[in-house]
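Lecture notes, unit on protein representations.

Consider one protein chain, 370 amino acids long.
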Amino acid sequence: MAALLLLIAAGAGALLWPKGSEAPAPRLRDTGLAALLEREAEGFSRADQAWRFRFPADHAAHSDYRTELWLVAGTLSDREGRRFGFQLRFLRLGVNPPATPMGPSAWAAHDVYQAQFALTDVAGGDLHSGERVSRAAMGMSGSEASPVRVWLEDWSLEARGGGDLRLRAGTKDVGLTLTLRNSKPPVLRSADGFHAYAMTRLRAEGTIRIGGRSIQAGGLAWLDRAWGEIPMPVGPVAWDRFLLQLDDGRELAVLRLRRRDGSGEPVLAGLLVDDDGTVHTLAHDDLTAEVLGYWPSPRDGTRYPARWRLRLPARAITLQLTPHVADQEADLSLRYWSGVVEIMGMQDGRALQGNGYVELLGYEPAPARR
């Protein structure tokens, strides 16, 4: 189950993952996928050589590899300034290698897909979320190469003309349809047994359905992709992952790993992307991350970090992150905090602002007092 957890949660985590670091293994309710992941992976390709990335082709599934992820997260606002946050995540798990003959049943499948969707309504103080699982059979889920499309029922991510992406997802209460236009070269990684890339600044425009209304909105989004032997959990570790988009055109991704019991020193890794697309890799000594406050879950008392201060000392950057809504805890097969935050900061006396997404994994309720 722990391995499946990281596959559900990974994305930028794969892009940033420090070599040799342990990964988180919090509580996961059984969805049946964990047992599938425990099967032998014979017959699937291994990411042993550098990958030649091609777009939009690489937005589609790479079915020769056993595991694969798509994650889109972003922030939106309408014409009145009402703010929203969203994320849509797809996981593909190969059950049988593509060359394996399938039986006559229409339900026979090579892959199983899982998807999670969440929409934060900042003004309403609400998080709406949903989850689906389906085998890639009977048209219920799958991926196509021409045109490029990944879907699970009516949730989908597809490539359109001119390199744009189209996203559709929703629950009975809320829905989202967006067009995403990339404005920077992708950040690429092809090493350590997996291939990954990120498109860190996607211009987003579309429609939000909420409260019986259809709202026109726009903003920014971030796409993360990974396939291959994505890093697997091996220990009692929690992580904080930050995907941040500054108003001056830069993006910052940070991964903070720490032991749940508080022992040892947290491990930090990151990327800073300049407004012209130049990528700076940030090692542990380039970053500091300080927790400024906590929020207790009303569901089980789990104590999550609720405000942070990030520093890049060599660049004189200080950023303070504050959730737009305190309760952005998704209660799905995996219970975790993942939501939109406001960025306020300084660099060399110049004010910095922006918005981003933070994901908190591996946090558990405090033991009951006797």
